[in-house]
Specification:
Strand order of the largest sheet: 1-2-4-3
Structural class: alpha/beta
Helix content: 40-55%
Largest sheet: 4 strands, mixed
Shape: globular
Order of helices and strands: EHEEEH
Strand content: 15-25%
Number of helices: 2
């Protein structure tokens, strides 16, 4: 299945890095959890308070300041963590 990944927010030079991380994460988690449960993943870069990322079905929000240093491991961790929630938010359950 082809999954469309769409980036939203103020354009940033590290958007390409974020898209690659999201794509790699989906491929990895599909091997472990099964097919991605949606046709599209929207990734939004916003300033957040008290969180590095937030997830909803088909949507992840990543703290905008993390985009400043795309080589930092936490940038990759935050994106892949929120992508993993896509299987566990609505497909299995979330509490």
């Amino acid at each position: 299945m082809i999954i469309r990944i769409v980036q939203w927010g103020i354009s940033d030079s590290s958007w390409h890095d974020a898209l690659l991380i999201a794509e790699e994460s989906i491929k990895l988690f599909e091997k472990s959890f099964g097919d991605y449960p949606f046709n599209e993943l929207d990734m939004v870069s916003l300033p957040l308070r008290y969180a590095s990322g937030v997830e909803y079905p088909g949507l992840i929000i990543i703290e905008r300041s993390l985009y400043a240093n795309p080589k930092d491991a936490f940038f990759k961790i935050a994106i892949s963590h929120e992508v993993a929630h896509q299987w566990w938010y609505m497909t299995v359950g979330n509490d």
